[in-house]
């Protein structure tokens, strides 16, 4: 997806007349503020769409099709754009994103009959999207020692090292690790032997992340010392906005050599590493992407592990775990549900959080977090771990 810090919109400023650019912005601005489901679009989504549409019209001008208004778009323009994108060998995900935004535009200009389908345009499946991991993107999988990187980071900036350590220990997203208020997260999650992750979450969905070992506690103590022992003090660098902190964080990661082009990993790889650890703790076996051990696996334990991975990393759906752990595909149909050795293991259905007759599955957050319905055996974090901010998950 296009991001604001790229120069994609630069093409529009170079090739489009000022009046054409201004007219395009007037047309798209009121429309990009709302998502398809009627909800307000995030600032990032609005910026991505704004950048895409500016570049799209710029590309048409560059290819000799100077339309002055998107309402003048024709089938030949669409074909030119698709061919141009295909020639650039963009990823399947990127192609789907571009086609989706193009189709939104066609609806806006009352030309829904011109909508295009990636499946029709590429019938051989070369643009088929998949969320299943095909490569181990964890740091450990690439032979990178997180402890060494954290030590090097501390030489540059101790807070930088601590943020990386938080991501490794708890599988947080980069924004969550920067925005977290460690003291508050610890206090509000103490009842559940967890931290409550609220700030910087995807979609504003808070969740409990388990504290399972002493090393995690030490990282928390370190974070509290750096951020300060007040509930509202964040890990973010004092005096920096989130955007400034984000830019600084990723520039420092490049300085440490953590970039896909150099070592084959990114900061996000620590979330993959955490996912693998959670899966191994539950199954006692490596993840599918690490080689797996299908013959020793039972379906119930496998699904329990996927639930746990998904929930701990802040996703609603169990199968998002495949993005981190890989998948056995249809081979799981041939393995027994409950082998004798593991017959006593609780199944998904045993968790009251997932039962329809549960009186309440909402988790309310106030000064002190409370859980209305919890799992008696384990921290109430599964594929529905994301804390419901006042609404029932359905």
Give structural notes.
The protein is mainly alpha-helical. The chain has two domains: 8-121, no CATH class; 135-346, hpI Integrase, Chain A. The chain contains 16 helices and four strands. It has helices at 8-15, 18-28, 43-62, 75-87, 92-108, 118-121, 146-156, 158-170, 174-179, 182-189, 214-227, 242-255, 260-263, 269-283, 299-312, 322-325; strands at residues 194-197, 207-210, 363-364, 370-371. A two-stranded antiparallel sheet has the order 1-2. Strands 3-4 form a two-stranded antiparallel ribbon. Strand 3 and strand 4 form a beta hairpin. Helix 7 runs antiparallel to helix 8 (158-170) and helix 8 packs parallel to helix 14. The longest helix is centred in the N-terminal third of the chain and has 20 residues, at 43-62. It is globular, with a radius of gyration of 24 Å. The two termini are 29 Å apart. The relative contact order is 0.09.
Please summarize the sheet with the most strands.
2 strands, antiparallel
**Strand segment tally:** 4
**Rounded mean pLDDT score:** 80
Q: Return residue spans where pLDDT drops below 50 for at least 5 consecutive residues.
A: 1-8, 340-394
| Distance separating the two termini | 29 Å
According to CATH, what is the topology of the largest domain? hpI Integrase, Chain A
In DSSP terms (H or I, runs of 4 or more residues), the helix count works out at: 16
Helix residue percentage: 40-55%
CATH class of the largest domain: Mainly Alpha
Strand percentage, roughly? under 5%
What's the domain count? 2
Overall morphology: globular
The gyration radius over C-alpha positions equals 24 Å
